[in-house]
Amino acid sequence: MPQPDLTLTPAGPALAPRYRETPRALPRNPYLRLFSHPGTRAFTVGSLIARLPMGMFGVSAVIMIAAAYGSYALAGAVTATGLAVGSVTGPLIARLVDRYGQARIAVPATAYAVLGHLVLLLCVHERTPAWALFLTTAVTATTPNTGGMSRARWAHLFRKDPDALHTANAFEQAVDELCYMLGPVLAAVLCSALFPEAGTLTAAVLFLSGVLILSAQRSTEPPVAPRTAAGSPLRSPGMAPLLAVFLATGAIFGSMEVVTLAYVDGPVAGPVLALQAAGSCAAGLLYGHARRTARLRTCLAAMTVLMAMPLLGASTGSLLALAGGLLLAGMATAPTMVTGMGLIQRLVPAAQLNEGMALAVTALLAGIATGSATGGWAADHAPFAAFGFLIPVTAAALALTLCTATGVGGRRTQEGA
User: Fold this and answer.
1) CATH fit for domain 40-220, picks 3.40.630.40, 1.20.1250.20, 3.40.50.2300, 3.40.50.300
2) Could you point out which of 3, 115, 189, 326 has its C-alpha 20 to 30 Å from the C-alpha of 293?
3) 147 vs 163: CA distance, rounded Å
4) For 18, phi and psi rounded to 5 degrees?
């Protein structure tokens, strides 16, 4: 309620003609405080809708191509081509977003990528030669990093409130895990219940709609910073070793996915693997409540220990033990990624934030591809059933070693000094 101002008069205190608003009390829950800021709910909805298809496109393409051509090898090669080209174009598109603004770049880039997905759908439906599939999937590589754009908005809104920014980063990581957990399931259901192209079609509509909603929220869009002569974010001190850590971290995720699918080898493989994402989502939300963040090397040390849990579970031969191990292993993922992305925001100039986060995603994708290939080799040549689960543990130990040796997770970089 507004409180009236009182002024002294000869007859005593009297009401002044002006009223003073009592400051509104902010919610105690840190997540509710995030969304009490004007405009945050709207752009979060758009970002969520835009990111859900990121977990759908790959699975949908594999099912769609395999159903039409009868070859999972071809389906895997086509999707891998899209990822490879995207790892090159992603930072370039992010640089344009930094230079010209989110709305001006993201909308046409998304429209072009969606067009590529629809053309790929038509090529598969008409069973065109395989080279046309590879050529078309390269067109989809203009996909903007919607998660990075959402994080850039939080970084702009809470640039003077590190606690709120930490909570926002934790929330964003939880959203990522949720989308990559639900996306493949939704794609598989649509492709099997309706028709093989249904997953791609739905994902394209959701992606374009989400980016349009996100881009329409101009009040929370970071302003375009003036051009600088700083060059690539790779030149920022500490950035190169941090990307090396992200590369090794990606190998953890890629190898764990492949070796788990090879070990379980059945319809329950997907739900079992999803437990890792569920554990990460829960841990990310809890980590967002913490007032103090852990150092990156502390998170990686915890990840190295917890990644051994699936190995122990698989060694027992029990599927339930493996499922529990994956749930525990996932609990180290979100805190590590939240801390790593927070470091990106400290190391990279604000004018290059989207490009810096796109480089981190590129390093992760390269690591995922390397881990997938290594995990696949281990699954085929394993001397014992649980052998493949040594790969994620080794990758986590490598990430920890790189972080410790380079000092990228030390106090100076952690605090942004």
Assistant:
1) 1.20.1250.20
2) 326
3) 20
4) -105, 155
